[in-house]
Amino acid sequence: QVQLVESGGGLVQAGGSLRLSCAASGRTSFNSYFMGWFRRAPGKEREFVAAINWSSTNERYADSVKGRFTISTDNAKNMVYLQMNSLKPEDTAVYYCATGSTLQNFAYWGQGTQVTVSS
After folding, report:
1. Under 8 Å CB-to-CB from 35, ≥6 apart: which residues?
2. Which terminus of the chain faces fewer neighbouring Cβ atoms within 10 Å, N or C?
3. Per-residue CA distances from 38 to 27, 28, 61, 76, 85 (Å)
4. What is the C-alpha R_g of the chain?
5. Residue 89: phi, psi to the nearest 5?
6. What is the tens place of the pLDDT at every residue in 41-83?
7. Burial of 55 (0-12, 13-18, 19+ CB in 10 A)
C-alpha cells in the first residue's frame, strides 16, 4: 500500500520561505511514477501546484508559483520536496503530496500539511 506523509508546514510571514517534505513508501520503486504537490485554500477547490518525475527530467508548475516554488526529489530516500520562497498570503492552504503513474492520474494522496502565510 502506497503511503505518503507530508511535513514542514507552518506559519510564516509574507516574503518568507518554507520547505515541505513528502516521504513515500509502499513500493519497491517509484521510478515510473510522477510526484505532485496540490493545495486547497479555505473555500476553494483543490488546485495543482507542481509535479515532477523521479528522474527529475520533467517538472511542471502552476503559473501562480513559477519562479517562487521548486519541486525536487531524493530518489535514495524516496522523498519529494517543495521549496517555497517569496510566500504570499494567497499561498495559505493545506498542501497535499500525491503520486501516480501519469500527470493526469494521481491515485495516492497524503494527509496534508497546513501552510499559513501572514501579511
Report:
1. 22, 24, 51, 52, 53, 54, 71, 73, 80, 97, 98, 99
2. N
3. 21, 24, 10, 23, 16
4. 13
5. -55, -30
6. 999 999 999 999 887 788 999 999 999 999 999 988 999 999 9
7. exposed
